[in-house]
Design a protein that fits this description.
There is one protein chain. The chain has about 260 residues and is α/β, with parallel strands linked by helices. It has one domain: TIM Barrel (Alpha-Beta Barrel). The chain is built from 9 helices and 8 strands. An 8-stranded parallel β-sheet has the order 1-2-3-4-5-6-7-8. α4 links the parallel β4 and β5. α4 crosses α5 and α6 runs parallel beside α7. The longest helix has 18 residues.
């Protein structure tokens, strides 16, 4: 596999994914035409986590992998159905998430967020799966929970939106960093500064589609094809050859999720 890898996307119905016959196949065809050959579909609740695993059946020129978890926005929900998926042994299940803390919107109580986050960290440890972490305006508590529960060996902070100090702390804990289209936004100077500090072997690129389409595509639904736009932007920001950046970030994501074993 030598193309781009979208390390984090949402292609499920809940996220407004195309529901016409063949539409998702067309999304993957556009991704393939843009040089993408692997995507990781991420769950945020029991329903769309099951869908993430089901979407792996679309596997073709673009290989599709699934991650199951409970988003901090929904942290008050029952964890049992997601735990059952995590323990299902599905052949394309590669991680737990997205989980974490979100104090920007705070749709769920902070105590519920911390409880759900700790539980999912425990699953990642026990099942030896990658952990996909959402962190927004909550890094102090995030580091506290990770310190208490222990950082799984393969952990990524997805759609990083913190400061250079935040990224340094994440790296010191052993976390990888994934960058989405936010890095291209006019007001994302601190994110761009942080991205320059990440060792290339710890870096991933993602779309977080259908959200956060990168410049110059803002205002339209995002999709995995645009991970190439994010990747080319970050490579230019860091002064690295695009081909080498693509090869290394894709290798990083394959390592993080053990994609070659699935």
């Amino acid at each position: 596999m030598s193309g781009w890898t979208d390390a984090h996307c949402h292609l499920q119905d809940q996220f407004g994914a195309p529901d016409q016959p063949g539409a998702l196949e067309a999304v993957l065809e556009r991704a393939n035409a843009a040089g993408v050959d692997r995507v990781v579909v991420i769950g945020t609740d029991a329903t769309n986590s099951a869908q993430a695993l089901a979407l792996t059946e679309l596997d073709g020129a673009v290989r599709v992998f699934g991650v199951v978890g409970l988003h901090p926005h929904d942290a008050g929900q029952d964890l049992a159905p997601i735990e059952a998926l995590a323990r299902s042994g599905h052949p394309r299940l590669v991680g737990i998430g997205e989980t974490g803390l979100d104090y920007f919107y705070e749709h769920a109580a902070r105590t519920d967020q911390r409880r759900a986050f700790a539980a999912q960290i425990a699953w990642a440890h026990e099942l030896d799966l990658a952990l996909v972490v959402h962190a927004r305006d909550a890094f102090d508590d995030l580091f506290d929970v990770l310190g208490s529960e222990g950082v799984p060996a393969r952990t990524v902070i997805h759609c990083f939106t913190g400061t250079p100090d935040d990224v340094a702390a994440c790296l010191s804990l052993g976390c990888d960093i994934s960058i989405a289209g936010v890095v291209t936004f006019k007001n994302a100077q601190l994110v761009r500064e942080a991205v320059r500090l990440v060792p290339l072997e710890r870096l991933h690129v993602e779309t977080d589609s259908p959200f956060l389409a990168p410049v110059p595509h803002r205002g339209r639904p995002n999709e995995p094809a645009l991970v190439a736009v994010v990747g080319e932007f970050v490579a230019g920001l860091r002064g690295e050859p695009v081909d080498e950046f693509r090869r290394q970030t894709s290798a990083n994501t394959a390592r993080l999720f053990r994609l070659d074993a699935h």
